[in-house]
C-alpha cells in the first residue's frame, strides 16, 4: 500500500484543478456516493474521464480520491466541475441527525439499521 | 505490523450495489501502531485503501497557487475500509491518526460521523489523551477499545482512571486482528450511540408534549 500524493509533483495538482485550491461547493462529503450520468466525452480532462468510469456504479468520494491518488480536496473540485455539467449526481449521507443546537446525534432508526447490518456480518 | 501480502482480497476495485445510496462513517482514532488499520482490515469488505487530505492555511485566496504548491499546506494521510450493511447502506471505517495536526482537518473530513472508537494500547495510554480531549471538544460521541497486545494486565478501573474516562463511556477489550472482536467493537459503539440518541429523542418528545 503506498501513500498517494506524498511525493506528488505539486504542478500536477495545480494543472488538474486549473489552479484552484478550494471547491466552490461543500456538496461532497467523504462518503457522498457519486453516480455517473453520462459517458465520458471526447476531449475531456483525463481525471474527469476516470471519475465517470469509476462512477458507473455508486462510488464514494474517498474511494475516488484513493483510486486517482489525489488529495480529497482536489477530487472535490473535479467533482464540482462534473456536477455543474450535469455529468454526475451525488447521493449524500443521511444520518437523520437533527443538527439543532450543535447536537448531531444520528437518528435511532438509522442506528438500528446499522446494528442489523453489523450483526449480520 | 500489517502485512499487505496476507490480505487475500482482490486488489481491483469492488463496486457497490447500484442501489447504494447512503454512505455512513465511523472513525477509529489512535496513535501510531495501535492497530487502527488492523481493525479496519478485520471487518472491511475491501482491502483497506489509503488517501490523504491537504489543508491550506486559512485566509488564502481561492486562486492562490501557493496553497497547492506545498509551503503552506499540511497533509494528513488516512486509511479506510468499507462494509456493505444492506442494499442501500454502506458503512465506511476510517483509521485516523491522533496527532495534533490531524485535528485541524477533523471537521472537513469527519463532520457527520456516526461516532468514534478510540483505540488504545495500555502500554502507551498517554498517547490517547489528546484524542479523547479533542473528541469531547468536538462533541463527537465515542467509546474506548483497548487492543490486547499481551502486556501487563490492567483493570478496567485503572485504565479508566488513567484516561480520566467518565463512567458512562463504554470501555471494552478487543483483539483488532479478530473479525468477531472488531465487529463487537463497532456494535458496542453503535449501541452506545443508540442509547444516547434514544435519550435525546425522548427528551425532545417530552418538551413537545409535556
From TrEMBL, chain A:
<protein>
    <submittedName>
        <fullName>DUF742 domain-containing protein</fullName>
    </submittedName>
</protein>
<dbReference type="Pfam" id="PF05331">
    <property type="entry name" value="DUF742"/>
</dbReference>
<dbReference type="InterPro" id="IPR007995">
    <property type="entry name" value="DUF742"/>
</dbReference>
Automatic annotation (TrEMBL), chain B:
<dbReference type="InterPro" id="IPR004130">
    <property type="entry name" value="Gpn"/>
</dbReference>
<dbReference type="GO" id="GO:0005525">
    <property type="term" value="F:GTP binding"/>
</dbReference>
<keyword id="KW-0547">Nucleotide-binding</keyword>
<dbReference type="InterPro" id="IPR052705">
    <property type="entry name" value="Gliding_Motility_GTPase"/>
</dbReference>
<comment type="similarity">
    <text>Belongs to the GPN-loop GTPase family.</text>
</comment>
<dbReference type="GO" id="GO:0016787">
    <property type="term" value="F:hydrolase activity"/>
</dbReference>
<keyword id="KW-0378">Hydrolase</keyword>
<dbReference type="InterPro" id="IPR027417">
    <property type="entry name" value="P-loop_NTPase"/>
</dbReference>
<keyword id="KW-0342">GTP-binding</keyword>
<dbReference type="Pfam" id="PF03029">
    <property type="entry name" value="ATP_bind_1"/>
</dbReference>
<protein>
    <submittedName>
        <fullName>ATP/GTP-binding protein</fullName>
    </submittedName>
</protein>
Amino acid at each position: 500500500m503506498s501513500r498517494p500524493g506524498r511525493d506528488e509533483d505539486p504542478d500536477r495538482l495545480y494543472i488538474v484543478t486549473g489552479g484552484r485550491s478550494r471547491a466552490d461547493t461543500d456538496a461532497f462529503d467523504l462518503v457522498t456516493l457519486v453516480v455517473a450520468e453520462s459517458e465520458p466525452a471526447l476531449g475531456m480532462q483525463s481525471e474527469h474521464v476516470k471519475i465517470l468510469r469509476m462512477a458507473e456504479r455508486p462510488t464514494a468520494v474517498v474511494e475516488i480520491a484513493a483510486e486517482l491518488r489525489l488529495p480529497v480536496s482536489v477530487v472535490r473540485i473535479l467533482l464540482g466541475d462534473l456536477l455543474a455539467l450535469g455529468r454526475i449526481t451525488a447521493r449524500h449521507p443521511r444520518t437523520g441527525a437533527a443538527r439543532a443546537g450543535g447536537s448531531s446525534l444520528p437518528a435511532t432508526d438509522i442506528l438500528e439499521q446499522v446494528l442489523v447490518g453489523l450483526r449480520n456480518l | 505490523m500489517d502485512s499487505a501480502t496476507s490480505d487475500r482480497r482482490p486488489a481491483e476495485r469492488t463496486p457497490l450495489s447500484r442501489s447504494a445510496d447512503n454512505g455512513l462513517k465511523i472513525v477509529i482514532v489512535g496513535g501510531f501502531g495501535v492497530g487502527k488499520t488492523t481493525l479496519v482490515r478485520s471487518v472491511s469488505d475491501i482491502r483497506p485503501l489509503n488517501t490523504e487530505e491537504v489543508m491550506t492555511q486559512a485566509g488564502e485566496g481561492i486562486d492562490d497557487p501557493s496553497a497547492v504548491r506545498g509551503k503552506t499546506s499540511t497533509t494528513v494521510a488516512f486509511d479506510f475500509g468499507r462494509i456493505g450493511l444492506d442494499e442501500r447502506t454502506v458503512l465506511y471505517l476510517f483509521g485516523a491518526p491522533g496527532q495534533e495536526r490531524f485535528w485541524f482537518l477533523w471537521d472537513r473530513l469527519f463532520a457527520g460521523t456516526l461516532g468514534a472508537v478510540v483505540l488504545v494500547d495500555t502500554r502507551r495510554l498517554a498517547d490517547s489523551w489528546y484524542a479523547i480531549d479533542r473528541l469531547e471538544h468536538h462533541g463527537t460521541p465515542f467509546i474506548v477499545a483497548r487492543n490486547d497486545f499481551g502486556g501487563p494486565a490492567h483493570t478496567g478501573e485503572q485504565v479508566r482512571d488513567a484516561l480520566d474516562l467518565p463512567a458512562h463511556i463504554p470501555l471494552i477489550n478487543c483483539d483488532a486482528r479478530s473479525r468477531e472482536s472488531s465487529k463487537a467493537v463497532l456494535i458496542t459503539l453503535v449501541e452506545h450511540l443508540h442509547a444516547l440518541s434514544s435519550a435525546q429523542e425522548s427528551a425532545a418528545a417530552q418538551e413537545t408534549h409535556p
